[in-house]
Design a protein that fits this description.
binds glycine; Dehydroquinate synthase-like, alpha domain; alpha/beta; Rossmann fold; 6-stranded parallel sheet; 14 helices; 10 strands; two-stranded antiparallel sheet
């Protein structure tokens, strides 16, 4: 896969206008969800008028990342006579960029798409790296393909449209990028004031964070090795996210990743020599900014079962990405059921639940 073009822009409308003028396409489509239609589309609407863009809108949130929404997008493209030379702009969070990327990758065997991420999570993670797809059969991102957007336009002004929870959610993936990079990146993030985020400082940190992901994806686009680094915090995190969903108390993805980091840094201390003080500092940061997802020991079996269903596993063993130090990766690690239960004990003790 070629290096993905990512542009950090300060004036989305004029940059997009320049890109569209330089692009050869016959019809322009913009995919939004109901929220980004209302809140973000007005910020780029003027430059779309000249190209008579067709707007396609799907429901907001992960529950709409379905085959039905995908079929709606294909239907809209078909009804408006999209061809192989048409262009789709995905304007939204990770759900929109994932689903829209997949719709574009499969319509007429693939049309061009451009991502404009509007959430912090989508800026630093989902919109970059070519993973596209939908949820299926109760499993997240079960169907999809790897295909890069021809451009990703990151304008952090969209962050002004987000609430505090969505900033925290995206920040968890940035913290993960810091942990897999080096101590200085990690320390910068730990010192960031998440309660009163400074947009200028956040812009700098976003650029650095995207750079971390971009370097990894360039080396291993299809997750054969190094890209597994990006799964830090996600084995436990996905299990907590699924448990929360089953119990009717859904949480934002980044919150689950943050709690998953607490679990997996503990496992890193125990199994691969990660420094205890760095683990505790990170856990305390997460406790104070993300609160606690509480569960009792009766849920351990269910959480373990959820971890055994993770699509990253091989040979029936639960797969983790661990660290020996900040920036010192240990991919393809496994843990026994006993060790996983101990990890959950540690989480509950540290987080006070
Ligand atoms: N979100 C992890 C990855 O893109 O590989």
């Amino acid at each position: 896969m070629e290096k993905q073009s990512i542009l950090f822009v300060r004036n989305i409308e004029s940059e997009l206008s320049d890109i569209l003028s330089a692009c050869a396409f016959d019809r322009l489509f913009v995919l939004t969800d109901q929220t980004t239609h209302a809140v973000c589309l007005p910020l780029i609407e003027k430059c779309l008028v000249a190209h008579q863009a067709h707007i396609i809108t799907i429901g907001t949130s992960d529950e709409h990342k379905t085959l039905e929404s995908l079929a709606d997008v294909w239907q809209s493209l078909s009804d408006a006579k999209a061809t192989r030379r048409s262009l789709l702009i995905n304007l939204g969070g990770g759900m929109v960029t994932d689903l829209g990327g997949f719709a574009a990758s499969t319509f007429k065997r693939g049309i061009c798409f451009l991502n404009i991420p509007t959430t912090l999570l989508a800026m630093v993670d989902a919109s970059v790296g070519g993973k596209t797809g939908i949820n299926f059969n109760g499993l997240k991102n079960e169907i999809g393909v790897f295909r890069n957007a021809f451009d990703v336009l990151v304008d952090t002004h969209f962050l002004l449209t987000l609430d505090e929870e969505n900033i925290c959610s995206g920040f968890a993936e940035m913290l993960k990028h810091g942990l897999i990079s080096n101590r200085s990146d990690w320390a910068e993030l730990m010192n960031f004031d998440l309660e009163k985020p400074d947009l200028k400082r956040l812009q700098e940190l976003v650029e650095k964070s995207v750079g971390v992901k971009q370097r990894i994806v360039l080396e291993d686009p299809e997750e054969k090795g190094l890209r597994k680094a990006l799964n830090l915090g996600h084995t436990a995190g996905h299990a907590l996210e699924s448990l929360a969903l089953h119990e009717g108390r859904p949480v934002l993805h980044g919150y689950a990743v943050a709690w998953g980091l607490v679990c997996e840094l503990y496992l890193s201390c125990k199994k691969t020599g990660f420094p205890h003080d760095v683990m505790l500092q990170t856990a305390n940061f997460i406790k104070s900014h993300y609160g606690v997802f509480a569960f009792d020991c009766k849920k351990y079996e269910q959480l373990y079962l959820l971890m055994t269903h993770d699509k990253k596993n091989t040979d029936g063993r639960v797969n983790f990405t661990l660290l020996s130090d900040v920036g010192d990766l240990r991919i393809n690690q496994t843990a026994t059921k006993e060790e996983i239960f101990e990890m959950l004990d540690f989480y509950r003790e540290t987080m006070g639940c």
